[in-house]
Amino acid sequence: MAVSSKLAAIWLKRNKRGPMDFHEQATLVAGRGLAGNANQGGKRQVTILSAERWQELMQEVGGNLDPSGRRANLLVSGIDLENSRKRILLVGNCRLLIQGETRPCERMEAAWPGLQAAMRPGWGGGVFAEVLDNGEIKTGDRVSWLNDTSG
Is residue 89, in this structure, part of any structural domain at all? Predict the structure, then answer.
C-alpha cells in the first residue's frame, strides 16, 4: 500500500529572524507567498521541508530538534524533494513551482552542532518555491507532484 503524501505542518514567520508560529491552515497568495508571513515575493515565497529527511538528519547528528527549528514554512511527508527544481508541487489545490534547494545557514549549526554540514547533501535543507495559485491550505492536505504517474 502506497504511503499517502500530505502536508504535515504550516509555520509562518512573524518577522525577519523572528519566531515560527504553527498554524493549522494558511492562505497562499500567487506571486507573494503565505499571507501573514514575513517573507513575501521573489522566487523564495515558500520554503518546504521533508519530514522523512528531517528525521534522517536528526538521527545522523544525534539530535532531537522539532522540524520547526529548520524555519521552513511547510513540512511535507511521504514525498521526496531532492532534485525537484522546476517541478510543480500540488499542496491541496494550489500549485507551487519549486525554484531550488534551500541551503542550510549558520543558524542550523547554532541550533544543533553538525546539523549545517549534515544538511548539505541530498537537499537536506528542503526547497523554496513560487506560489502559482491563490488558495487555502491546511494540515492533512494531500501533496503530490503535478503530472506524476507513479501513483
Answer: yes
**Cα 123 from chain centroid (whole Å):** 11
Domain assignment present for residue 95? The answer is yes
User: What's the CATH code of the domain at 16?
Assistant: 2.40.33.20
The neighbouring-strand residues paired with 6 are: 77, 142
Confidence of residue 3 (pLDDT cuts 50, 70, 90): low
| pTM confidence score | 0.93
Distance CA 147, CA 136 (A): 21
- Torsion over CA of 126, 73, 50 and 124, rounded to 10 degrees? 30
d(CA 28, CA 93): 10
Residue with cell 530538534: 65
Would you say residue 1 has pLDDT above 70?
Answer: no
* Nearest CA-CA partner of 103 in 117, 89, 88, 114: 117
Residue bearing cell 537536506: 124
